[in-house]
Structure formats: C-alpha cells, structure tokens
C-alpha cells in the first residue's frame, strides 16, 4: 500500500482513521511491562536488604549494575533497531529482558543480584529506542510528543502496578514468584507484537487516508547514517546533555523511593503501596500533560522551538520544590512534593524524547535516542553511587534531593545553548536522484 504525502489539511479528519493509536497502545503496554519488571526490585528492596544482608553501598552497586548494562545496551540498541527495524528489534529486546527478569528468582546473594540486574539492563535498553522510532514511523511530527507522552505513561503504570501486585505475590508465594510472574506478561505482548505489527506501508488494516496523514511531513532521505557521525552535531549533544543531567533523577525515584519512604516514615512492605501508587499516578498525569502542553502551545500559534521549550520549562519548575522534601514531617505532603516532581520529570521526558525526531530524519531517530539513553544511564550510575555513599556516610537525603530539584533548569539552559532554534541537523545526506 502506498500513498503520496499530502498536507494534513487536505484529508478530512473523519476519514483519516485511528489505527496509529492502536500501535501507540501496544507501545504503552510494552513500556508498562518494562517498568513492572525493573520496579519489582525497588518495591522489595527494604525487605531484601534484611533478607540478603546488603548495605547501602552494596545496594548502590546492584542498582549501578542495571544502569551500566542499560548504558551499554542503549549505545548498541539504537543502531541494531535502525538496522533490523522496529518489528524484529523490539521483539528481540523484550525476549531478552523477560528471561533476565525471571532470572532474578535464582539470585541469593549480592553478586547474584548484580548479575541479574546487568542482564535485565541489557534487554530493557531496547524499549525506548524502539518505541520512539515506532512513533516516528507512525505519526507526523505535530502528533509525536502526545504519542510519546502516552506510551511513556506506561513507565508510571508499571510503577503503580508493581507496588499493588508485588507485595501480594511475595506474601503468598515468596519473593521469587514476584520476579517470575512478569514473564507471562512479556511473553503475551511478544506474541501479539509479532502477530499484528507491520510498518505502515505493509499494514493492510491501515487506510490510504491515514497513511497519507502519517506521511504528511516533507519526505526524508532514506540512507543509513553511522551513529558516530551523529555526534558531530550539537543537536545530538543537546539531547545527550538533557538525558545525562535529568535521567539520574528518575533513576533516583525509581530505585530509592521505597527505601526513602521506609526509612523516613517507617513504612513496611504492607503499607508502602498507597504512597508509591499516589506518586506514580501523579507521574502518569504529568507524562500525558507534558506532551499535550507542547501541542497546545503550537495550536496557540507558537513555533515548535518555543512550544517545546516552553513545555519543558513548566515541567522543570514542577520538579524544583522536591529540594524541600526532607524538610517536611508529614508523609502525604512529602508524597505530594515527590509526585509533583515525578509528574514534572515525565512531562519533561515526553518532550525531550521528541527532540530527536524534531531535529533528525526518521532513520536516525533510534540511534540518537540510544546515544542519549546511554548518557542518561551513565548519569544514573553516578547518581546511584553518590546516593549510596551519601546515605552510608550521613544517613541524610538532603543533598541528594537538592541536586534533583535543580537539575532540570540547568538541563534546559544547556539544551537552549546547544540548540537555540531546534533547527534540523545538517547531515549532508545524498539527495535521491531526480526523476
């Protein structure tokens, strides 16, 4: 099936179709499973710390093992997905991380958890490069931030499901079962993906009108671009910097929130669920709202540069108050500050993850996302080691949350300096021969 790109305004909205949103729903489901898998440890950490006997520094190394593998995986995953395509590349990634998630049930020591987390990080690294590339293939630029915001909400849904389900499963069948049960979800998604997913031009259920809508942006070159060549451009470095500076804050929330709530407010495995669920529900709203906000600014007449950065500024300001969280005595006030910060991060991410498709052609998007994800994971490793050392030495989260609260304003300034107009990178790609 093929169709010539046409301006979106020439296709009546009622005739465009909505199949692309079904694809987005599959990305949402995959991201949800991805975060359920990685968040199981975060929920069980206070219990496993006593059961296995690790200290704060050792837990920092367990978290860092995941992030190191995630960084390595992201550096390779983008290029692999660009080469294999989203259908096979995504399937490969979820197959690896499913086996690794279940492998945690075999761990009985700090070394065992380090190995399991490393394997999980390698597999899970493929999720965001594959999902962002799929969005670039299935959505015109004006819809991409909203689509990214929707699938990125899966990170919060997964983080909500984990504290709901994990304590129940662990109490009934043991902590090993909590890791094993995620394999069923992953296998189900993998089977559906392989059975149903095809690129737009090969999808028989896609109407010609919707394909024309998807391809309504100006055509892009189709040649392959080595990822090292991408690093010559400051547009790449703007995305890398944004991820390196702000991803560590999300890693902090993901792996240390349960420990923070347990140590500061005396919560147990049985009582930690409601505060964590509240935090991630707020993050879910932020993920979708952040993508919607950029689109709203565009509809108000703002250009893409102003709209994207305006939305990022709003999100950055939502994170800043988390610096005060260690100064409050009330659990739910602390939950509110952390939830607002996580909502701000997810709204920020919905826009940051759209930057590669704003500035680069579709065939390079997964590679750029992979490079940026590598930088984010490297920053996360540094944050985990810093957090473990800080807590072991002082027992205080004060400095840790101060760093978290200031990171986003700094990152936005760096992005603006490196890409002041979000102009497309000049890759000097060869032109298609004239007809």
From TrEMBL:
Belongs to the major facilitator superfamily. Phthalate permease family. PANTHER family: HEXURONATE TRANSPORTER, SOLUTE CARRIER FAMILY 17. This is MFS transporter. GO terms for cellular component: plasma membrane. It catalyses: aldehydo-D-galacturonate(out) + H(+)(out) = aldehydo-D-galacturonate(in) + H(+)(in). GO terms for molecular function: hexuronate transmembrane transporter activity. The chain crosses the membrane at residues 59-81, 88-107, 113-132, 144-166, 172-195, 237-257, 277-298, 310-326, 332-353, 365-386, 398-419. It comes from Pseudoxanthomonas taiwanensis. InterPro entries: MFS, MFS_dom, MFS_Na/Anion_cotransporter, MFS_trans_sf. It is a multi-pass membrane protein. It is found in: Cell inner membrane. Residues 23-423 form the Major facilitator superfamily (MFS) profile domain. Keywords: Cell inner membrane, Cell membrane, Membrane, Signal, Transmembrane, Transmembrane helix, Transport. Its main location: membrane.
């Amino acid at each position: 099936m093929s169709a010539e790109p046409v301006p979106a305004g020439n296709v009546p909205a009622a005739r465009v179709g909505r199949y692309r949103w079904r694809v987005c729903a599959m990305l949402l489901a995959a991201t949800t499973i991805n975060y359920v898998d990685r968040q199981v440890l975060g929920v069980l950490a206070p219990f496993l710390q006593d059961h296995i006997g690790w200290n704060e520094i050792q837990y920092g190394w367990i978290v860092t093992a995941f992030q190191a593998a995630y960084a390595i995986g992201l550096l390779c995953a983008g290029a692999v997905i660009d080469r294999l395509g989203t259908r096979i590349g995504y399937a490969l990634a979820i197959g690896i991380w499913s086996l690794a998630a279940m492998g945690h049930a075999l761990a009985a020591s700090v070394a065992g958890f380090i190995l399991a987390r490393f394997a999980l990080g390698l597999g899970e690294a493929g999720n965001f490069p594959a999902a962002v590339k799929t969005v670039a293939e299935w959505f015109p630029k004006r819809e991409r931030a909203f689509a990214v915001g929707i699938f990125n909400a899966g990170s919060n849904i997964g983080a909500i499901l984990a504290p709901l389900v994990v304590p129940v499963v662990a109490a009934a069948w043991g902590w090993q079962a909590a890791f094993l049960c995620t394999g069923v979800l992953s296998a189900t998604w993998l089977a559906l993906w392989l059975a149903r997913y095809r690129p737009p031009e090969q999808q028989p259920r896609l109407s010609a009108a919707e394909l024309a809508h998807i391809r309504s942006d100006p055509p892009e070159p189709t040649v392959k671009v080595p990822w090292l060549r991408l690093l010559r451009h400051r547009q790449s470095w703007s995305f890398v910097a944004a991820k390196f500076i702000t991803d560590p804050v999300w890693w902090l929330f993901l792996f240390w929130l349960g420990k923070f709530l347990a140590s500061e407010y005396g919560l147990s495995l049985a009582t930690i669920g409601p505060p964590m669920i509240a935090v991630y529900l707020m993050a879910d709203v932020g993920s979708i709202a952040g993508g919607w906000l950029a689109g709203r600014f565009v509809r108000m007449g703002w250009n893409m540069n102003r709209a994207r950065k305006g939305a990022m500024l709003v999100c950055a300001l939502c994170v800043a108050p988390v610096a005060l969280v260690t100064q409050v005595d009330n659990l739910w006030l602390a939950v509110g500050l952390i939830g607002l910060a996580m909502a701000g991060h997810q709204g920020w991410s919905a826009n940051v993850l759209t930057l590669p498709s704003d500035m680069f052609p579709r065939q390079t998007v997964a590679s750029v996302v992979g490079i940026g994800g590598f930088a984010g994971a490297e920053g996360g490793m540094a944050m985990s080691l810093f957090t473990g050392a800080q807590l072991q030495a002082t027992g205080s989260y004060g400095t840790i949350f101060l760093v978290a609260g200031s990171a986003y304003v700094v990152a936005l300034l760096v992005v603006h300096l490196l890409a002041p107009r979000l102009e497309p990178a000049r890759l000097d790609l060869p032109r298609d021969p004239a007809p």
